[in-house]
Amino acid sequence: MPVFDYDSIKRGIAIIAALGMLLPLNSLAQIIDYHQHLYSPQAGVRSSPGSKGIDADYLVAQLDGAGISRAVVLSVAYSFSNPNKAAVPNEYAHVMDENNWTSAQVAKYPQRLLGFCSVNPLRPYALQEIARCARDPNLRTGLKLHFGNSDVNVDNPDHLARVRRVFRAANEHHMSIVVHMHANIDHHRPYGAKEARIFLEQLLPEAPDVVVQIAHLAGGGGYDDPETDAALAVFVKAIERKDPRMKNVYFDVCGIAIPGMWENKSDLLVTRIRQIGTSRLVYGSDAATIDNRPKDALKQWHSLPLTQEEFRAIDSNVAPYVRNWVSAGKRNAKRSGQKLAPNRGTSTEGHICKQSPDHTFKSQRWRQLKP
Questions:
Q1: Are 216 and 222 in contact (CB under 8 A)?
Q2: What range defines the domain where residue 90 resides?
Q3: Which of 17, 51, 104, 288 has the maximal Cβ count within 10 Å?
Q4: Which CATH number covers residue 64?
Q5: From edge to edge, which strands make up the β-sheet containing 281-282?
């Protein structure tokens, strides 16, 4: 009869458990980045990436370096209609071109990248472009809206009516919505609890059948703005009272862990995350610029005082709008005998995205420089 050294076995189990706790989180789960961007050269010159832009080859290499398996790519076509920048001749043509370029880029990596269309919801061509994108197999999954860049003010009745029509159109076309709902910061547009209640009561009912993903935990980067917490608190209370309008609402944590912009609110931030619940939260890195590589963004996110179980749950969440895509990818990988996990050894040399020297993501200007 074999003799077991139970003390040795217990020590071995303890060592294995300890090693498990020390493993990087991105080795324990397939991470999905729900907030990424690509920029054509034309779009890049209007924002932080610069004239080289960011293409799919560069982004996938960066995702590989971070151990991120998949990314949702949000078109920045809306940036051509930013009312606070110089007007672009033939604006709608530029918007279509950027959406088309994004579609072609994500098509190069169908198991790694999933595209979203984008548009300024205040423009007269918004509904036309949404309908056009809904026919594109690489963009029809969803719609990205950026209230700050488009200078949407939901306190303005005309703006609100236009955005309601856009939400309704997205719902009719079965397109999920990712929305940067924080109002324009440079021009001090009103934002806080009042605007969040308008969003809850007048916009969400227009899109009851699709996922609405509120970006940056309802903020614009970091978590040191009291108005961001006031807005998020409206949704937290709605979740607590089981408001049916919150049924399909998710939040991404993109950009909240920028150094120097959350630490003094860490307790409040963690409380809000736990009040929302990990099942409603998804991870995001934002644009893979020189100052915001996915590997660095992921490390910053993991610096928050959450448990490993909480990080693992959020990092690996599969939102409803990606379930079919993820399942199909796994089936294809299984049939071909390929591993879905990214190659961590992939080099990013030769794909460096040059950033304009006067742009940085290391301060509160990050909020202002968002596309």
A1: no
A2: 29-369
A3: 288
A4: 3.20.20.140
A5: 31-36, 68-74, 113-118, 142-146, 176-180, 212-214, 249-252, 281-282
